[in-house]
Design brief:
- 24% of the residues lie in helices and 28% in strands.
- By secondary structure, the protein is α+β, with helices and mostly antiparallel strands.
- Strands 2-3-1-4 form a four-stranded antiparallel β-sheet.
- α1 packs antiparallel against α3.
- It is globular, with a radius of gyration of 16 Å.
Length: 112
């Protein structure tokens, strides 16, 4: 089942370092089955909890493939260029639809 890596770039502190990261990170996707769905395309903010400079959305064959890319020595080396360059959130999500009764089980019994 496809999985998606999403990166939310909240703010940029050093554009040159970020550009070095982009250049170094590109080759790390080769042979990993990654499909670039949206890379810093224009966004239309609807409901945000803070600033958002850009978004990256990449499809992988599955969660294991996405994690293998992220944890690879090649990507971890490229990632060093991003350190201090931008405030970015990265996460991987699986595709699918969880039925409402099964959503967020870790907070199911909490009271408001």
């Amino acid at each position: 089942m496809p999985a998606y890596m999403i990166a939310l770039n909240r703010s940029v502190h050093d554009r040159q370092k970020l550009e070095a990261y982009w250049k170094a990170a590109g080759p790390t996707f080769e042979g990993r089955g990654a499909t670039f769905l949206s890379i810093y395309t224009p966004l239309a903010p609807l409901e945000l909890m803070g600033s958002l400079e850009g978004v990256v959305l990449i499809e992988f064959p599955d969660v294991a493939a996405a994690k293998a890319w992220y944890e690879s020595p090649a990507y971890q080396k490229a990632k060093q260029h991003r350190d201090g360059a931008a405030d970015t959130e990265f996460f991987i999500i699986d595709s699918g639809n969880v039925p409402p009764d099964d959503r967020l089980p870790h907070i199911k019994n909490q009271q408001a």
